[in-house]
Design a protein that fits this description.
The protein is mostly beta strands and 170 residues long. It is built from 1 helix and 8 strands, in the order αββββββββ. The protein has an 8-stranded antiparallel β-barrel.
Length: 170
Amino acid sequence: MKRIILIIFIFIAIKATAQDTSPIAKALSAGIELGIPSNSIYNIGLGFSGKAEIPASNRICITITAGYTAFFYKSNLYRSSLTPTPAGFVPLKAGTKYYFNPGVYIEGELGTVIETNYLRHDPFAFSVGPGFFIPINEKHSFDLGFRYENWSDNSLRQTAIRFAYRFGGE
């Protein structure tokens, strides 16, 4: 599935003919996230995030992201009917977003993740992935992004999907 999504985004980026050299405008977005952990004690993650984009050049933006994600434990790890409360995390990341054309991008972010339940650790996190915009009008669009994310202590590796409403931009 990951390979198919990657191939689709590469195809879109190569076939895109709308090459715009106009500067990228500042933008804000707010959205929901779905995380699918791999090799983890968590089954699924649900959350929300806000993102600010500040133009650095015609094709590159600096991004700042903050949010909250709750990861739900796998029920088969515990041999009782009681399932622990979801583990809560606050990701704080900064990164860059490169636009292949006005609607298709790839983004990389670095930062930290603050655990809200037990305060055991605050791992370093990095993520990378493609995305695209679904325009609503000139200044508003939906932002659909995919990413692979890894935390430094190997407590979580996930594939995530972010669906957001974006204000500003092109």
